[in-house]
């Protein structure tokens, strides 16, 4: 089978009918934008935006020892995730390097009475995560199933999203907490409704059968039109998550970094008791935790431009003529009205307010202010 042709989501024809600019992302043909990236970004911040995220990788884990497998394979404590709740976590290599960041949903029990989990991986890493979980399942009475073709995934994000979704669902959205998920119907079809997102705003992600995606998209579009909902592409998703200080795999997270290097050591739970506390990468991560306490090599910080030039991933962060770090993500921030970046910077230059830091943009050292992440936090 040729791997050159990108995969298409169930909404491909609809995106094209809306005039979307399409792009190849992680082997999928995805909408980059429908019109103005800035308008799409601002709609999510002030009203609502609708995204097709069907490229994400869904993996089902079931069986009598599903919990033991996930506690062994991942760095988080999955045994403490209650039914209907979700948890952000990482899957790491034996050397502590991050293979991917994940959301794990505890969906209840199968008909056989076994725990039922849905692991959602990044599109670019879905196969890697599937292979790692399958390999790590050896010796556990648990089943790892590739369910990428079983789901379409839509997200409605922004302050108006609860009202829009309420008009179309029987589910108790008021009782649905952040990082929780519950089964319900949306526009008359079954869905897993999750209150998660990657924009810094309140919002929902809807896991559906692919054949239901178009009908639900149209119903959301109709319900959201009076309050300003518009379709949104991957481009504004990137500026939204950047403003919210959320890491992107391949930029802030890589196999050469541990969760402690990325400032996300809180996701690693050494106090797990399943499997006698054993999990993949534990020894390396204990050493990484010590390093982070005593002499962190670099810290992830925010940078806000004093000028107009936009920093990009891979550009050097400089101070006193020396390279002191590297930009991992950069873009113009529609909300702040200035270019912003996330960067790994030597600890000596990582304190918010540090002066004299710049980014080398094509030979010119543009001045930047070091700030704490996130750049933007919604008012609750």
Topology:
Layout: E1 7-8, H1 12-17, E2 21-25, E3 28-33, H2 37-46, E4 49-52, E5 57-62, H3 66-73, E6 86-92, E7 98-109, E8 115-121, H4 126-136, E9 143-146, E10 152-157, H5 161-166, E11 181-186, E12 189-194, E13 203-208, H6 213-224, E14 230-231, H7 234-243, H8 282-294, E15 298-305, E16 316-319, E17 322-333, E18 338-346, E19 357-361, E20 364-371
Parallel strand pairs: 1-3, 4-14
Antiparallel strand pairs: 2-3, 4-10, 5-8, 5-9, 6-7, 7-8, 10-13, 11-12, 12-13, 15-18, 15-20, 16-17, 16-19, 17-18, 19-20
Helix pairs in contact: 2-7
Relevant terms:
single chain; six-stranded mixed beta sheet
Sequence of strands across the biggest β-sheet: 11-12-13-10-4-14
Count of extended strands: 20
Low-confidence stretches: none
Alpha-carbon Rg, integer = 21 Å
Question: Helix and strand succession?
Answer: EHEEHEEHEEEHEEHEEEHEHHEEEEEE
Number of helices: 8
- The amount of helix comes to 10-25%
* Overall spatial form: globular
Q: Largest sheet, described in full? A: 6 strands, mixed
Structural class of the secondary elements?
alpha+beta
Average predicted confidence as pLDDT: 96
Percent strand: 25-35%
Q: How widely separated are the two ends? A: 49 Å
Explain this structure to me?
With 380 residues, this protein is of the alpha+beta class. The chain is built from 8 helices and 20 strands. It has helices at 12-17, 37-46, 66-73, 126-136, 161-166, 213-224, 234-243, 282-294; strands at residues 7-8, 21-25, 28-33, 49-52, 57-62, 86-92, 98-109, 115-121, 143-146, 152-157, 181-186, 189-194, 203-208, 230-231, 298-305, 316-319, 322-333, 338-346, 357-361, 364-371. The chain has a 6-stranded mixed beta sheet with strand order 11-12-13-10-4-14. The radius of gyration is 21 Å and the shape is globular. The relative contact order is 0.15. The mean pLDDT is 96.
């Amino acid at each position: 089978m040729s791997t050159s042709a990108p995969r298409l989501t169930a909404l491909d024809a609809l995106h094209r009918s809306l005039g979307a600019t399409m792009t190849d992302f992680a082997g999928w043909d995805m909408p980059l934008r429908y019109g103005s990236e800035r308008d799409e970004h601002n709609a999510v911040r002030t009203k609502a935006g609708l995204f097709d995220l069907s490229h994400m990788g869904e993996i089902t884990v079931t069986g009598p020892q599903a919990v033991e497998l996930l506690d062994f394979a991942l760095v988080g404590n999955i045994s403490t995730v209650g039914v209907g709740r979700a948890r952000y976590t990482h899957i790491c290599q034996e050397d502590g390097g991050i293979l991917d960041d994940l959301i794990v949903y505890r969906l209840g029990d199968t008909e056989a009475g076994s725990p039922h989990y849905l692991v959602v991986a990044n599109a670019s890493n879905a196969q890697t995560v599937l292979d790692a979980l399958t390999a790590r399942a050896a010796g556990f009475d648990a089943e790892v199933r590739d369910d990428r073709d079983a789901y379409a995934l839509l997200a409605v994000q922004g302050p108006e999203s609860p009202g829009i979704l309420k008009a179309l669902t029987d589910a108790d959205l008021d009782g649905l907490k952040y990082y929780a998920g519950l089964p319900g119907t949306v526009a008359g079809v079954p869905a897993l409704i999750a209150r998660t997102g990657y924009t810094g705003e309140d919002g929902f992600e809807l896991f559906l059968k692919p054949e239901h995606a178009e009908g639900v998209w149209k119903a959301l579009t109709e319900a959201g039109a009076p309050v300003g909902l518009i379709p949104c592409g991957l481009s504004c998703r990137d500026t939204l998550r950047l403003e919210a200080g959320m890491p992107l795999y391949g930029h802030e997270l890589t196999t050469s970094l541990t969760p402690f290097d990325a400032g996300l050591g809180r996701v690693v739970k050494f106090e797990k008791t399943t499997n006698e506390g054993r999990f993949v990468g534990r020894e390396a991560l204990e050493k990484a935790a010590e390093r982070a306490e005593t002499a962190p090599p670099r810290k992830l910080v925010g940078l806000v431009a004093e000028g107009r030039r936009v920093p990009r991933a891979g550009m050097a962060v400089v101070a006193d003529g020396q390279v002191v770090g590297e930009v991992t993500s950069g873009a113009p921030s529609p909300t702040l009205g200035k270019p912003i970046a996330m960067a790994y910077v030597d600890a000596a230059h990582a304190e918010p307010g540090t002066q004299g830091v710049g980014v080398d943009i094509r030979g010119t050292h543009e001045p930047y202010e070091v700030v704490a992440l996130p750049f933007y936090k919604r008012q609750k």
